[in-house]
Amino acid sequence: MLSQVTLHNILPEDQDQRLDRWLKRHFPALNQIKIEKLCRKGEIRINSGRVKPSKRLISGEVVRIPPLHPVDSKNEKKTKVVAESDAVMIKNAVIFEDSHFIAINKPAGLAVQGGTGQKDRHVDSLIEAFRAEKSEKPKLVHRLDKDTSGILLLAKNRKMAELLTKSFKSKKIQKIYWALVAGSPEKDIGTIRISLKKSQLSSGFEKMVPIFSHDEINHPSAKRAITDYVVIEKVSQRATWLGLSPITGRTHQLRSHMAAIGCPIVGDTKYGGRNQTNNGEGWGAQIGGVISRKLHLHARSLSFEHPITKNLIFLEADLPAHMATSWNIFNWDLKWAPKDPFEIYE
User: Fold this and answer.
1) What is the pTM of this model?
2) Structural domain of residue 15, as residue ranges?
C-alpha cells in the first residue's frame, strides 16, 4: 500500500480509459466513493490539474496519487492463486505468444468463464498464471463452448483486447473449425442460413432452436445465423469430417446448424438427438463402437492481420486426444486438409 504521493505515467494501452476504472484496476484500495471524494478534494490530479472520475485518459499524462491508507485485509480484493498443476497445464497449452497477445489450445471440458453450473476452475481464472509481477491479467476477447477444444486468444492489455475484439466483430479474423458429424450433408460444400432462437429448458439451461425461413415471421426474436461448411473426407454416408466457418457468431451456432440439417456433431448430447445412436440415416450424434461420446468440435485455426505489427498471423491447434483417436480409426490423415479447406472445391 502506498504511504506517500506517487506519480504514474499513462501508457498507450490505457488511452481513452476512464480515470475511475484505471484507478480501481491499479489500486484495489480505491472504490468509487473514495475516488469521487479524492477527485473532488483535488488530491487525485492529472498533469497537476483537477479532474473528474469520468475523465478519459490520454497516453503520456501523469496521474498524481495521494497517500493511501491501508485497507482491511478482509475487504481487499485478492488475486486468485492458481494450483501448480493447473498453472503447468494452461502454460503448456500456449501455441503462440508475443508482446501483445497469447494463443492457447483450450482443452475440451474446460469452461472459458464461470457461470451456471461452473465452479472456479475455468480459463478466466487459470490465466492468472500468466500474470507477471505488477502486470495485467490477460483478457479474453472471444469464447468457446466448454466442450469445444481449440484456439483461444488472450490479449495482454486493454488496447489489444479492443483491437482484437474489433477484428472479430468486423470479420477480419477467419475461423476454421473441424468437426466429425454423423451422416453427410447433401452437398460437399455449402452455406447454412438458419436463424436461431434461445429457448429456456426446464433444467434452467438454454438451448438454441433453429427457425427456418418459412417460420421466421412467427419468431421476431430469432437471430440471423450463417455457417459455411465443406466436406474434407467421409466414410460412405456414415460419418463426415467437416470444415466449418461461422460467418455469424451465435451461441451454439455450429452445433445447432449441423443438427438442423440432419448431421449432428458426434458426441453432442444437447443437439444430437435423444437416443444418441446413428443408423446410417444422418441422425443421432453417437456413431457407436469405440468412438468417444465426447463432443467432436475443434477450433482448428485462426488467420488474421496482426492489429499492431500488421504481420499475417496463422495459428493452428492440434486435435484433442479423443478426436485424434477417431481420426485414426477412420484412417484419416490430417495432411488431407489444407490450411483453408474451402480451397478443395475452388
Assistant:
1) 0.78
2) 6-65
